[in-house]
Amino acid sequence: MKLNTTKHRHSGTRRRPITRPIAAALLGATLLTGCQQANQSLFIGDMSSAYNREIWWMSVWAIVLSIIIFVGVSYALFYTINKFREDKHDAPPAQFHGNNRLEVILVAVPVVIVFGLSILTVRSMAILNPTPAQATKIDVLGKQFWWNFAYPETTSDAGGVVTNGNEIIMPTKQPVALTITSGDVIHGFWAPNIGGQRAAMPAVKKTWQVDTDRAGVYQGNCSQLCGGSHANMRYKVVALDQDRYNTTLAAMKAYRAPEPAPGSAEARGYALFMQGKASTQAVACAACHRVQGTPAAGAAGPDLSFFGTRRTLGAGMWEAMTAAQWTEPKAKEQLHEWIKHSPAVKPGSLMPSYDGSEYLSKGQKLKGGVLTDAEIDDISAYLRSLKLPEEADYWSGTPINGANASGGTQ
């Protein structure tokens, strides 16, 4: 997996400075080696999803009819060419006007085929579009360039709806009703293993159902070109058996961020997270992010309540797929670099930099605040402490679907 970096073009003998691209490449290589990647493949023919099964059987009819039409038209074409070759007929061709029977056949057959396919399509739409009342409800919000997943029927004990950033947890063997919208531009929600794709549009909410019969971790992506980091707007779908899903959701409901021990790195990180550092104009993380059970209630960025349990960072741009997660030395370094200057490592990221460098936010050039490396490490330590109980770790023991040798069961 590689960072998306600007490609430099040059013509003739004119050359542009290469220092910046080389620096970016070195930084990207450093960051990408910090986390083990699952390298998942996507498969639209995953028959563990009832949605995909219905689409598949509807497609079978279309494919069969297409083959029949192709064979029939090809036979008629070659038969006619062979039978009426000029070297077989010296006499002038008979003159006549039209062939009513042939014209009726050529009109009627396509009409019957289209009518039949229409019936099959309407049947599938009638099955797939309605969402059953008992379906698990999850609200999906897409923004440049991340996702938030909220559970509207589950209010946390600390207040507010249970929400998770960039990782959606869903039960298996029952329909899940996703209601999707966008907070800025049009995005596309697509996790092909669990169902079809839908557009996330500003001020519009669409609800449809997805499902899977198989527990596992599935890859999801934004399928609508939405800006500089469209390709880096990813998410994970974690499908759990019903009992385990209930356990995880109950733990998320009861969760309150742990109170750091006085004088610890986590305590120093908590103070910086909530208050920032006014003397260096470092913006507080809480201004944009929510952490359940704390005063942090920002909505401009993804929810960080369970960050220590998550295995993804930067909307799935990087993954920590080792048992040590973000405590693994190289993964810790990568998290540090992400906090320090995320706009430099993820094009279009609206998160401010904390190394004093300039960055673009909605077309405006802004100057980031400054935190020392030690202070950034303190914030990292606080984020790593935001963990669900061990029995609610939805990654533990969950197979990663479609992963190659570098990924696997956690």
Automatic annotation (TrEMBL):
Residues 36-132 form the Cytochrome oxidase subunit II transmembrane region profile domain. Binds a copper A center. It comes from the Bacteria. PROSITE patterns: COX2, COX2_CUA, COX2_TM, CYTC, PROKAR_LIPOPROTEIN. Coiled coil: none annotated. Its EC number is 7.1.1.9. InterPro entries: CcO_II, CcO_II-like_C, Copper_CuA, Cupredoxin, Cyt_c-like_dom, Cyt_c-like_dom_sf, Cyt_c_oxidase_su2, Cyt_c_oxidase_su2_TM_dom. It catalyses: 4 Fe(II)-[cytochrome c] + O2 + 8 H(+)(in) = 4 Fe(III)-[cytochrome c] + 2 H2O + 4 H(+)(out). Subunits I and II form the functional core of the enzyme complex. Electrons originating in cytochrome c are transferred via heme a and Cu(A) to the binuclear center formed by heme a3 and Cu(B). Belongs to the cytochrome c oxidase subunit 2 family. This is Cytochrome c oxidase subunit 2. It comes from Deinococcus aquaticus. The lineage of its organism: Bacteria, Thermotogati, Deinococcota, Deinococci, Deinococcales. The gene is coxB.
